[in-house]
Write a structure and sequence with these properties.
- This is Alpha-ketoglutarate decarboxylase.
- With 176 residues, the chain is α+β, with helices and mostly antiparallel strands.
- The chain folds into two domains: 37 residues; 136 residues, Porin (Beta Barrel), CATH 2.40.160.20.
- Helices cover 18% and strands 62% of the residues.
- Strand 2 and strand 3 form a beta hairpin.
- The longest helix has 31 residues.
Length: 176
């Protein structure tokens, strides 16, 4: 059996293949672009201070907007704390949920798993400690444009383990 394909048939199949591949490639790009159109990158800055105490954090984040009211994402953060006889740093990974029921009002939930390394200076000697602990922040903020300013509260706050001086922390988040 001798199978012969004419040049005209071959060119027709080749053009059909190119058109199919073109549609497949651009369909994928369109789906990816639709996803990326709903992703915002940014992060938060936070400070907590008192009498001889300072704690600050820097937290880059990526958020996916499901619609005008709800978003979810991931984040990481680094925290540094210093007091007269105490110093510590913390690194964490977290899951973020945002809810905006009214224009300008944003509720947030952030579940974090923190790694802490700290040193406490005592008269009898120094205590060095490293461990993991969870934090669950519930927050409320005011949003205008790309900026949200508010306050968050750690409902799992443990004075013995937390790197923060207290459970409340003001924040400013910026997303683009």
């Amino acid at each position: 059996m001798n199978l012969q394909i004419s040049n005209k048939t071959f060119i027709s199949f080749f053009i059909l293949f190119l058109l199919s591949a073109h549609n497949y490639i651009f369909a994928q790009e369109t789906a990816e672009n639709r996803f990326m159109d709903n992703v915002r990158l940014g992060g938060s800055l936070g400070v907590n201070f008192g009498d001889g105490y300072f704690s600050g954090y820097l937290a880059p984040k990526a958020i996916y907007d499901f619609n005008l009211f709800a978003s979810a994402g991931i984040g990481t953060a680094g925290t540094y704390t210093n007091a007269s006889n105490y110093s510590a740093y913390s690194l964490n990974l977290g899951l973020i949920g945002l809810f905006r029921p009214l224009q300008g009002l944003e509720f947030s939930t952030e579940l974090e798993e923190n790694y802490v390394s700290r040193e406490l200076e005592l008269e009898g000697g120094n205590i060095t400690d490293s461990y993991w602990y969870p934090a669950l922040f519930l927050g409320i903020g005011y949003t205008t444009g790309n900026v949200t300013a508010g306050i968050r509260y750690d409902v799992l706050y443990d004075e013995e383990k937390s790197i923060y001086g207290n459970a409340m922390m003001p924040f400013v988040s910026i997303f683009f």
